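Deviations from the work plan: none for this task. Representative record:
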Amino acid sequence: MFVGDYMTRHPLTVTPDTSIVEVQGIMAENNIRHVPVVEKGKRLVGLVTRQNLRISPIELSSLNVWEITRLLSGLKVKDVMVRGKDVITATPDTPIEEAARILVTHRIGCLPVLEEGIVVGIITESDLLTQLTNLLGLQVPGWRATIRVPDRAGEFAKITAAVASRGWGIDAAGSLPTPRKPGYWDVVIKISAATRDELVAVLQQIEGQELIDIRATGP
Amino acid sequence: MQTRFHPLPPILKVENLSISYATRYGEVEAVRQVSFEVNRATTLGLVGESGCGKTTVAFGILDFLGPNGRIVEGSIKFQGRELVGRSEKELRILRGDQITMVYQDPMQALNPSLTIGEQLAEVLIVHRNIPHAEAWRRSIEMLERVYMPDAPNVMKRYPHQLSGGQQQRVVIAMALLNNPALLIMDEPTTALDVTVEAAVLDLIAELKRDFDTGIIYITHNLGVVARICDQVAVMYAGELVERAPVKELFAHPLHPYTQGLMRCVPKLGITKEESRLYPIRGRVPAPQDRPWGACIFAPRCDYATERCRNERPMLREIALGHSARCFYAGEIDPSAWQPSKEIDLPVVEPRAASGYGTVLEIENLKTYYEQPSRSVLSLFGLGKKQHVKAVDGVSLRVPRGITVGVVGESGCGKSTLAKTIIGLESPTAGVLEFLGFDISMPVTRRDVKLIQELQMVFQNPDSTMNPAYTVGQQIARPLQRFKTVPPHQVYDEVIRLLHAVRLDPSYYDRFPSQLSGGEKQRVGIARAFASRPELVLCDEPVSALDVSVQAAVLNLLLDIQRRYGTTMLFIAHDLSVVRFFSDFVAVMYLGHIVEFGSAEAIYAPPYHPYTEALLSAVPIPDPCATQKRIRLEGNVPSALNPPSGCVFHTRCPRRNLLLDQGKVCEVETPPQRYNTEQHYILCHIPLEELRKMEPVITTL
């Protein structure tokens, strides 16, 4: 689970001399919000986001329509982009949770992915959230069970043993400390091989654990 | 599995692209209103006969059109940015190093005077400003990625020191070093052997997945399309006539042209008795002769109506993701199709091998080429002589009126065998009898009568015709030489022969340069049959031709063979064609016939392990068929120093079926095991074991 596996390869890029009118068009047409700026050899020199293209109404209110046009037509990517060293980046071997942390702490939406200064991809909030859905097995139709377990070693093994004893496989799994209830963890597992009743019967028999939710999820 | 909730923008979006060339006929439109998209990690196949504008589209994207070509209208959006209408300098930056192209002939893409390493590292040094040592290291990594054996040493070699398949790997590695978003491949495997082709196709599919590259794959081979493409766009005479996902296209071809193409290719496992090849009548019109305001395919279409001749159909979506440029797409039922009366179809009667008498008898034939030794002793004539054992102990009986196919990779001795029979090479040892006469002497010392009875059709019709003589003169030559007909009847006979190969008398005065490839091959066939020979050797007669022309030439050969009762030795590397055309098949490897039998017997178990590998490499024009995946390692070993014991043991994937990992194969010559009276296999593995293997190809 590294950035290199989930990034978008071959991202759309622009050069510092591209006009911002064109960049705006590219973003709108392809429904994207971030475009890395590169020079020869796909070396990163900056980043344009939709925010960079936002021009405040106060600035515009003093201009007439001709002046606005002239202002816009003269503006290039290099005039508005986030520059070189200020762009926060990742590498293909950054773990995805680390990438998520960087996005959250810097309050940004994307990380260009670099390999020795060369842009090899881009990873965005949407990519990471997509992987969250995959992590909990949203792409396979089946039963999503939430089990509350005490915070001690061996509890997860009980679940896998119970499921394995019936010959089922676990399609996805994830766990988090139970909110507002210290000493407990909530485990989510996704199982597609069993029927609802079979699964409930098996999970309810595990000692010391509580099945708190079961529902069908899928794409 | 990767899911995405929002689709990624396509890498390339071509809309309404028209390209024309300025020629002496004025401005000629070579490509007309073509639209398609290429997505990440998908392969778009661009299919069609030659002259349909496939390569022109690719050159349009790359701006390689040359001084007389230009984009007339339309848009090419690469990575969201418009390419049409920009200056050359801007284009260079835009495309930069994000688009690469792989050509048909790898030797022409490599610089013969630089080592592989210099050429690979240069890509990174120039485009990416990477220091030399680092570039060198990455180049080795990439070579290993494309499964180049011994990569660090290959870096120090020159292109001519590598085989064709290895050269193509170098070219692919070079293309990928830049990590391009779009890769355009123009017939990258056409020049390669089937086994090498299979390995390269596997590689392309794998790289597409690993690098998320969008690929445009230009080819005329429907088998290759079925194997590696996700989407297919069929082009005809500069127009895109059909576009669909690959399985959909093969299951429900909508456009009559696509349906016609499918009827042209022999499916593996089909024989000439069971099925026919139906060539599409006529040929692709030259760009200046294309109709305006009419369906471009109408002149060759069996369903054409008044409407097709007066109105141009638009590309419209018939089913989800499946578009065709035809008024009647979706209404035409290809299974109800009947061949039109304008195409001639041969009548084929099944033949039995017995009771016909033998035309050619070869026993333990050996043709060795002497290799000059490099030692000092050899200067004084004392050195040990080395021999290239091109044909090494071949025995073959060819009954009258039968077609025997010879298959094998290049370097297996197929062509040497043909050359020895025709008399261009002298056999080193063995018996070579034709109609009971010894023909082991070179052609210059053979009796004229024998030469007359033994003729040849060559692979490349361009290089086997004298460009200074007219077609008529070329066909008349054997007639005069062999006195087949009295001198005053020669002209009539030439016209008759032209007629027999479906060329009208106006061709008599034409020069070879005025003919298309298929027509030249027809003249070649007419010339070979002019002396009414008993035996005709065909050395890859259709491999240089387009599918629909190939179907027509094969039909022609079948028809002439039936009429004259000629015996044929048919050498080819395309196993579907061989199976379709031949009664018996000989599989050759390193100068030996490793398996011989009737065509049906060869294509079903028990197989020789080499035959099995060849069969699993053939691209079959059916995306739903499953094929066992057996890939041979390495190349055919040098015939200068063939492996001991079984010559195939160095590459045999089935050796482990025997005790001690097949120790016996390295030491002993394998026995000829007879499956039936007319089917033998040269292998140490017992027939019972070989019989247990599953068939290579299963169709659903």
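Chain B touches chain A at residues 1-6, 8-9, 11, 40, 79-81, 93, 96-98, 127-130, 179, 181, 211-214 (CB under 8 Å).
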